[in-house]
Here is the input.
Amino acid sequence: MIARLRDKFGKRQPNQATVGNFNDRQQKEAAFDSRVRGIRTVPIDRIVGSVGRYQDLDDRFRLKLHVPSERLQRIKAAMREGRPLPPVRLYQIKDEYYVMDGNHRIAAAKEFGHDEILADIIEFIPSPTTLQNLVFRDRADFFDRTQLKGDIQLTEVGQYAHLLKQIEDHRAYLQRERSECTSFEAAAQDWYKTIFRPLCTIIRRGRLLESLPGRSVADLYAYISVHQWETGRRRRYGSGIDELISDNMEVFRKKMMETKDCDYPEMRRGITAFILMNVQAKKEFKVVDKIYELEEVREVHSVHGDVDILIKIYLSRDLLSSDAEIISQFVHEKIRQLPGVIGTKTLIPGYSKIKKDRKVDERPRE
Here is the structure.
C-alpha cells in the first residue's frame, strides 16, 4: 500500500523509464520520405515514443516531475463523461508510433486501460536497406495506391503485388457487372469488405495460424488466395474450410455476400453436455428459473440424490476449437456466477442413442 501511495503522490525518480525518441529511430531507419495516412484507430500499445518531449515523459506518457496538470485533469474528465476529443497526431515508422501532439490524451487513455485511440497519422518510410524495410516500402506503396484504412501486414517482399492484381481483376469484374466505370480506390474498398475480410475471418476462426508462428493473417490470406485464384493449385485446409473457399474469387465473394453477418455455419459444430449442480438450500427453484432462461439450455431438472440440479446444454464451437474450452467458458461465465451455486460437474457424452421426441408431462411427480 505504501509503495502504491508513493507511486501515486510521491515525487518520481529521475531515472524512470522514458518513452522512445522519434529522431533516433528516424535516423536509424533513414526514414525521411513521408506519406499522409489520415485519421485511423491505433492500438495504444504501439505508441512507443514522442517526437519532442521524450525526455520529459515516463513510459506511461506522464510527466516525470510530479507536477499537477490541469489539462490532463480536463482530458480525464472528458473521457469519463464520454465527450469527444480531437484525434492525437502521430508519426509512424514501421509498426511503431510517436506522439507529435496529444501526450496528455495518451497518458489518460493508458490510465483508463483503453486499447485504441483515434489518431491523425503521418508515416515515415524506411530506406530500402533490408528485406524488412523493402516490405514496409511495398506496404506504403500499396496503401498509397488503394487508399485503404485497414491494417494489412504482409511479411514477405512481393506479396502486395498479388493483392494489387486481385483488386485490378475485381475492378474489371465490377465494371462488367455494373456497366459503369469503377475507380481503383472504389474497387479496393469493395475487395477489402467482400473478399479480404471474409477470408481473413475464416482463417481466424479456423485457427490456421496456430501452426505458423511469426506469420500474419494477411500472409495466409495471400498464400491461400494466390493458390486458389491465380495458380489454380488448390490446397486442403480442413473439413468445413475447404467448402467455403471457392476456386474463383468472384464466386467466393458472392457466397460471402449471401452469408448474413459473416456467420459461417459450415465452420461450426454442436456440442451436447450435461451439468450436475449443487446449490444452496432454499435457492434451488430460483436457480432453476435462471438456468431455464439461458438460450443454450435444452433441459433443466431438479433431482434427488447427491446433486440438486441436472441440466442439458447444447453449444456450438468453431471448427477447430476445443469442446472442453467452450464448455468451460459457458459453465464459468453463465452457471457458476449465479447466486446460490456451490459446485458443478460436467459430463460429455462419448456415445449416444437418442429416441424421437415425445411429449413430456411437465407436472411434478408425487
User: Anything to note?
Assistant: The longest strand covers residues 268-279. Residues 268-347 form a domain with the Alpha-Beta Plaits fold (CATH 3.30.70.920).
